[in-house]
Amino acid sequence: MKQKPDVQQGTLALMVLKTLEVLGPLHGYGVARRIEQISGDLLSVNHGTLYPVLLRLEQEGAIESEWGASENNRRARYYHLTREGRRQLQSELQDWHQTTEIIARFLSAKAEDLA
Amino acid sequence: MSSIRRLWTRTLNLLLRTTGDRRLREEMEHHIALQTDENLRAGMSVSEARRQALLKFGPVEAFRESYHAEEGLPTIETILQDCRYAVRMLFRSPVLSIVAVLTLALGIGANTAIFSFIDAVMLRTLPVKDPERLVKFGVEDWGGITDSFACTELYSYPFYRQFQRDNQVFSGTAAILSMMNDVHGFINNRKESELIHVQTVSGTYFQTLGVGPQIGRVIDENDDSTEGDHPVLVISNNFWKHRLGGDPAVLDHKIKLGDTVFNIVGVMPAEFFGTKVGAAPDMWTPLSMMASIPPGWNGRKENFSESLYIIGRLKPGVTIEEATANANVLFPQILHSFPDAKLSQDNLDRLSHARVPLKSLARGVSDLRDAYSEPLKVLMVIVALVLLIACANIANLLLARSTSRARELAVRQALGAARIRIIRQLLTESLLLALAGGALGIAFALFANRVLLHMISSGSETIALDVSLNLRLLAFTFVVTVCTALLFGTLPALRATRLELTSTLKSGRGTSTFGARTPLSRVLVISQVALSLVLTVGACLFLRTLNNLSRVDTGFDKQNVLRLDIDSSATGYGEDDPRMRSLLHQIEERVSSLPGVEAASFSAFTFGEGSWNSAISVPGMPFNRKVNVKHNEIGNDYFKVMRIPLIAGRQFGPQDTTKSQPVAIISESMARNLFPAGSPIGRTYSIGSPDGMEVPVEKQVIGVARDVKFNNVAEDLEYIDYLPYTQRGWGFGDFEVRYAGNFAAVAAEVQQAIHSIDRTLPISNVTTLEEQVARSYSNQTIIAQLSAFFGIVAVFLSAIGLYGIMSYLVSRRTGEIGIRMALGADRSEVRWQVMREVVLWIAIGIVIGLPITLGGGRLVRTMLYGLTGSDPWSLVAAAVALLIAGLAAGYLPARRASRVEPTVALRYE
C-alpha cells in the first residue's frame, strides 16, 4: 500500500466520486462493493484503503456524510456528493480523458508516423 | 481552494483534539459485518465468513494510522509531543532549568537592551518621507553662532535664502537653528513658568521633510516671510498630551515666550521628533521669530551671523555627489556677492580651501551618535561575550544532565528511536529553555533600558530617545534566542546520542565513557575562562580609566561648590541693562551673606558647558587664527568660589565698571604662549581677528590665573581669559556658591534667597560642581559600571561552570579516589590533586584568552585615559580575580573528594 499510494489514492478518489455520482448516497461498504464489481481486481485485497480516501475527500469538501440506517437496520454512515464534489469530478474526468488520450496516441504511434 | 479548506479542518482537528476514531471503528465494523453477511450468503461457514471478511478488509491498524495521519497534522503533532515531553523534563530538574532560564534572561536581555540603544541611536532612520533623499550641509553637527568667514558647518539666513533661490539640485531646502532655545515660558495664564524646548526652523522645514500635522497645520513659508510678526507654534504630540492634557481644542491655547504671546497652529504626530536624535523639541517656531524668543538670537538679516544648519531634499535622479558639486559652485559665488564680505587675503585663502561637505540626513543629526557609537559597540561586544559564556555554561549543565539521562536515552535508542528523533527532542528542550529565557530577557531589557536611559541623561531631564520595543528589536531578540539554543543545545545533543549502547545499559556509572565524555566539558570551561578574562580585563581597564579621570586635577576645587542655573531672560531685562547688573549683584551679595556660604558668583561657564571662543590679537605678536581662546564672563568673587589661585596681578573689583578701562584676567598658559616675554600685566589685547565683523575692544590684562580644565577633564591645556560682567553684558545661567555643611540645606536657603529678590526667576539644575565634572565623563562611568557588572557576571558564570564540572568529575572518580586512599594517599593530597586541575584549567584559559584580550585592548585604546590597552595591572588583577573565583569554585568539590571513605567507595564499585 505504501509503495504506490499516489496512483492508488488518486485513482481511488476518482472512482469514489464517480460511484457516488452514479449511485447517489452510499455507505463505505456499498462504495467498496461497487468499485470492486466494476474494477474487478483493484480493490479485492484491501477494502480498508477506502476510508482514509473518504476522509480526505470529505475534508476537501467534495463529499459529505451523515449517519443513517442501512439494510437490515444497522447504523451506517452514508456519503453523498456535494456541488464542489461534482465540479471536482468534472475537472478530474477531463484531466483523466486528456491523459489517456495522450497516452493512447503515444502507444499507438508507429515508426512511420514519426518520420 | 480545497487544499486550504483541508488544512483548516486538519488544524482545527489538531487544536480541538477531535478524532474520528469511534466513527472509523464503527464504520469498519459495519463494513466487515456486511461483508460477513455477504460471505454467509455465498455459503461459507460462520467463522470462515468472518475470517474472509477481515482478510478482505486488510490491516485494520495500518488503516487507522493512515486515517489519523489524514485527519490531523502529524508533523506538528510530533513537535507538540516533543514540547510536552520537554516541559516535563525541564520540570523534573527545576533548579537546573531555573538557573538556565535566568542566565539566558540576563544574557539575552542585556543584548536586547544594548541593541535597542544601537537601533535608536545608530540605525533607525527619521520618521519622515524618503529620509534617504535628505542631506545636510556640514558634517560636524556643531551648535552655536559664529561670524567666521567661509564656515562650512553653520550658515547665515541670507546665505540660506540665496542658496535656496540659486540651487538646481534640491526639490526643497530648509534651515534649522543649530541651537535649541530652552525657555522658561508661560502656558496660557498659568502663574508658574515652565521649561520649554523650542526649535526654530525655516518656513520650508516641514514641507522639505514631508511631514504633516495631526491637528491644524504646520509652519509654512508665509510664517517665515517677514521678521517678528508671525507668532505661531507647532507643538509636539508629547507637549500636547502631557502639558496641555491632550485638550482637543488645543489650537485655542497660547504660549508666552519672553514678551511674545504665540498661537498654537498645529500638533505634530507622535512619532515625529524633529531632525535631531535624542533631543525632542516641545515646539517649533519660524525663524522669523528668532529674535523674539529668549535669549533672543538676532542676526536674521546679517550675512555673516552664521548659526543655521541647511538641509535639502535631492531632486529625483540627483546624486549626493552632483548636489555637493552644485553647492560648492554656489558657496563662493554667494559669499562674494555679499557687499559686506571682508575679502582680505587671509579670508580669500580660506574661501579657496573651503569645501562644503554634504552628508546624508537619513538618520538625523546626532551628537549622541558621535558620543555613544563607540561605547555602544564595545558594550554590544561585552554583552555578546556574556551571552556566549552563558551558552557555554548551559551547554555544560545540559551535558552533565544528559549523562544522568544516558540510560533513558540508551533505552529509547535500543527500542528503535532514530538518533535524529532524539536529537530533535533534546533540541526542543534547549529551544524551550531559550524561549523562556528570551521572553524573560525582554522584560529584563525593558527594565534595563529605563536604567540606561537614566544613566546617559545628565541632569533632571531624560534624553528623548525611543527605546521601546519594536518589530526590529523583537526580531533581533528572536534570532539571538534561536541561535543561543542551537549554540548551547547542539553539542550536548550530539554528544548525548553518541553512545556505546551496551556499556551504558549495563551500568549507570560505567568508567569506560568517562574518559571520552569530559574533553568537551573541559573545552567549554576553558573557553569560559578565556572569555571571562577578556571581560574582566576590559572591566579593569575601564574602571582604572574612570579612576584616572576622577583624579585629574581640574585646576579648581570642585568640592563643596553648589551650582545652579537661573534664566535671567525671564526678567525681561536686556543683557546690557543696568537693572540686570544690579539684580545679579544683589543676588551675589544676599547669597554670600547666608550662614555657611563662603562666596557666591555668577559666570557664563563653569565646566563642560560649551564655550564662547575666538582668536585674539595681541600687539607685538603675529596674529594666528588657529589659536582659540575661550572666554568666560564672571562675577568678582568667581576665583574665590572656584579657588583658582591668582599667580600675578589682582582680581576684579568694584573699580571695574562700564566707565573704566576694560580689563581681563588671563590664564597662565595664555600668558606664557600668546603674550610677548615678560609680565603680561598691563598689556592690552583684543578679542577677535583684525578683519572680523565685530569692532575689537582693547582689554588690559590685570591678572594671571592658574590653568584650569574647561570642557572635559581629559582635554589638553586650553587658553582661557576672564572678563568681568560688570563691564560687558551677558544673559546669565550659571551661579556658583562655595558652602560648608549640608548640601540640601544650603541649596534650599540659596534658592529661597534668590526668590526673595526676584520671585519669578526660574531656577534649574541645582547640583554640585563635583557632580557636574563627573557628568563630563559619564560615558566612561557608564562603560566602567556596566563592564564591571558584566565582568562579575562572567566570572560568576565561569565559577559555576567550574564548580559543576569539578563536582561531576569528583563523583565520577569516587572509586578511583577510594582506591588511592586505600593505598595510603593523604586527604590533603587528594584535595590538592583536584585543586591542581582547577588551576591548570584556569591557567590554560588565561593563556588562550591573553592574545584575545590584548587585541581587544588595542581596539578600545581610544576610550581609555591614562593607561594603555595592555595595562599590566589590569591583566594581573583580572587573572588573580579569575584564579580566586576558580579556587573558590573548586574548593567544595575538592573537599568532597578528600572526604571520600575508601571502604564505602570501594564497596560501591
Topology pattern of chain A, helix = H, strand = E: HEHHEEHH
Beta-strand segment tally of chain B: 23
| CATH architecture descriptor of chain A | Orthogonal Bundle
The interface involving the most residues is between: A-B, 27 and 30 residues
Q: Count of helical segments of chain B?
A: 27
SSE class of chain B: alpha+beta
User: Could you tell me the strand content of chain B as a percent range?
Assistant: 5-15%
Shape of chain B: globular
Shape of chain A: elongated
Task: Give unreliable regions of chain B as ranges.
Answer: 508-516
Round the mean pLDDT of chain A to the nearest integer and report it: 80
Taking all Cα atoms into account, the compactness measure Rg of chain A is: 17 Å
Structural features, described:
Chain A has 115 residues and is an alpha+beta fold. Chain A has one domain: Winged helix-like DNA-binding domain superfamily/Winged helix DNA-binding domain (Arc Repressor Mutant, subunit A, Orthogonal Bundle). Chain A has five helices and three strands. A three-stranded antiparallel beta sheet of chain A has the order 1-3-2. In chain A, helix 1 packs across helix 3 and helix 1 crosses helix 4. The N terminus of chain A is likely disordered. Chain B has 909 residues and is α+β, with helices and mostly antiparallel strands. Chain B has five domains: 71 residues, no CATH class; 189 residues, no CATH class; 237 residues, no CATH class; 154 residues, no CATH class; 194 residues, no CATH class. Chain B is 52% helix and 13% strand. In chain B, the strands form four sheets. In chain B, strands 14, 15, 16, 17, 18, 19, 20 and 21 form an eight-stranded mixed beta sheet that branches. In chain B, strands 3-4-9-6-8-7 form a six-stranded mixed beta barrel. Chain B has a four-stranded antiparallel beta sheet with strand order 2-10-1-11. The longest helix of chain B has 39 residues. About 1% of the residues of chain B have low confidence. The chains are: A alpha+beta (115), B alpha+beta (909). Chains A and B meet through helix 2, helix 3 and strand 3 of A and helix 1, helix 2 and helix 4 of B.
